[in-house]
Amino acid sequence: MQAVKPKAFIPGQTRIPLAVPTFGDAEVNEAIDSLKSGMLTMGVKVKRFEEMWADYIGVEHAVMVNSGSSANLLALSCLGLQPGDEVITPALTWATTVFPIAQVGAVPVLVDVDLDTYNIGLWEIERALSPRTKAIMPVHLLGNPCHLRNIRLIADHENLRVVEDACEAHGATLDGHKVGQWGDLATFSFFFSHHISTIEGGMIVTNNEKIADRCRSLRSFGWARPMADFPDLAKRYPHIDPRFLFLNAGYNFRPTELQGGFGIHQLPRLEGFIQQRRETAAYWNRELVRLGGYSDYIQLQEERPGTRHVWFAYPILVRPGAPFTRNQLQAFLENKGVETRQIEAGNMAIQPAMQQIKHRIAGSLANSEYIHSNAFFIGVHHGIGPEEREAVVGYFKEFFK
Predict the structure, then answer these.
(1) Is residue 20 assigned to a domain?
(2) Structural domain that includes position 296
(3) What's the pLDDT band for 7 if we cut at 50, 70, 90?
(4) DSSP string, 282-336
């Protein structure tokens, strides 16, 4: 049940999608085992995957939920934010980075990004600070790690929380430390199109035991029974059946055993998937810029020293003055069978939904707007082999001619 590739790749005809399935027979059999056992909702398989993920990231606690979006909302819900408190986050991101900030009653403060990394700008964070700032939510966009050491310095100096949105950055590193280790909390997504998948699913990681305890409670309606001090809490409320003691106003973000079972088998494959993505991205960078000489027309991302970029996707930015537009290049690639899409939700500040949300824009969003209008990405997943790599380079060369 691995992704089935065509028997023969035909350049210009065979489609190269943005994502292909990452799972196979082992995951399907594990899901069938759960279905046959009758143990369907969160249980031992979820717990096992949580333990494996915490060990992989290098943190004390991992709490699985039903999606990466839920992970962001749950993480922010654990910070004790008050109405009107501000959370600084990049304007160039996916919607479910920004919306949960508003959903917990806080104010998203949108700031610009760097053109080279597409990640939140350090200077932009500093000038966005206000007396209401309580947290910074950087996004490791497309698997490219943020300047976390500097972000952590700013946060520590200003006594702010850091929530890493690492939903697209499984296994990315900075200075030898995986993303997810730097913030007070971090979130990951296991959606179908990500490095590994539980179809839908997400994870929160932290080294803070109290935060992890609160996450486990809020994940399950606000139940007291997942909490470490549950026996003491039960004694404090003897007039309430301890099985149905609710300490917090929570959510139902529980994952299923099917998702946990998928994760148990997916995680051992992650490093292999990352290696394939890195090899493809390095090949395209070499052929299109260092050998092809097309850097006057397009800007590609390079892995920064001291980091490991894990390439959720392969972004392409059309430079100012290029003799073609982003839309023309996209249309050409699509006609060749290469699936493309814009960078995330683009500049969130101009999305109509933001009119419904109290928010603040700090500084110019010129880079976010430029990326919104002039960049796109293509797939860089494990389903892309030597033939597909070479074909994509050929398509670019044909277009540039």
Answers:
(1) no
(2) 270-400
(3) low
(4) HHHHIIIIIIT--TTTEEE--PPTTEE---SSEEEEEPTT-SS-HHHHHHHHHHT
